[in-house]
Automatic annotation (TrEMBL):
Lineage, top ranks: Bacteria, Pseudomonadati, Pseudomonadota, Gammaproteobacteria, Oceanospirillales
SUPFAM superfamilies: Thioredoxin-like
Domain GST N-terminal positions: 43-123
InterPro entries: GLR_AS (IPR011767), Glutathione_S-Trfase_N (IPR004045), Thioredoxin-like_sf (IPR036249)
Protein name, entry field: GST N-terminal domain-containing protein
PROSITE patterns, sorted: GLUTAREDOXIN_1 (PS00195), GLUTAREDOXIN_2 (PS51354), GST_NTER (PS50404)
Domain of life: Bacteria
């Protein structure tokens, strides 16, 4: 039964992820100079996520729209990034945005918080 529920969840996630890719529209446009500086800032971030998680899809959609090349790290079972997330952030819950700034590392959980943070910083 547990396996069946997991299968249905993954299937739904896959459908949502596909619909998202087909409907996400255009990316934010910036001058070449501004885009370059945004890309440099994005290098100090990484999104820990599951491919089919609806909260991760929502967050990836916002990242796409904001035109941010943030690295995506799968936190699925067996991935070394899962242990990294647990050690650094304290729990395996996705999405989680790892932000490195001025030598400090912040682990930001909650899709709405992550999107709010990115929109405030980059929109
Ligand atoms: N309110 C959270 C929900 C995140 C969430 O429930 N993520 C699930 C995957 S879809 C998860 O990480 N579950 C693992 C756990 O809670 O231990 C958000 O918006 O980010």
């Amino acid at each position: 039964m547990k396996l069946f529920i997991k299968l249905i969840r993954n299937l739904l996630g896959l459908i949502i992820a596909t619909v998202d890719i087909l409907t996400r529209g255009s990316k934010q446009k910036r001058t070449a100079e501004k885009q370059q500086s945004v890309e440099a800032e994005a290098q100090n971030m990484a999104l820990y996520q599951f491919f089919a998680c609806p909260f991760c899809i929502k967050t990836r959609r916002a990242i796409y729209k904001l035109n941010l090349p943030i690295e995506k790290r799968s936190a699925s079972e067996g991935s070394p990034f899962r242990d990294e997330l647990l050690e650094g952030g304290g729990r395996v819950k996705v999405p989680c945005l790892r932000i490195e700034k001025d030598g400090e590392v912040e682990w930001l959980y909650e899709s709405s918080e992550i999107i709010r943070y990115l929109e405030k910083r980059f929109a």
